[in-house]
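Researcher: Go.
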Amino acid sequence: METLLGLAVLALLLQLFPSVGREVLAALDPRNWPRTVWFAANVVVLLVLVAVRFGPQLAADWRKQQHGIGDEKARQEKQQQRKALERMQEAKRRRIY
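Model: Structure:
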């Protein structure tokens, strides 16, 4: 539904400003592109391909590392709680009634 609405707005704008439509089509025509644009387009395609290849593994490794950091913090908190509990128990044993 949203896509159709967007297309309708685009069609209305192109009817109101027909020269913009011609200029956009001319800019998208690769026969008119200078070498720098071709170079930039190739670099973008290369970066997209590298991201598709290595992105999921990098994201999984990052998530795994973040999860591991959280586990380490929880482990340290439990260890601190355990030490505090042991100190309290030791203090109870030393208490004189």
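Model: The mean pLDDT is 88.
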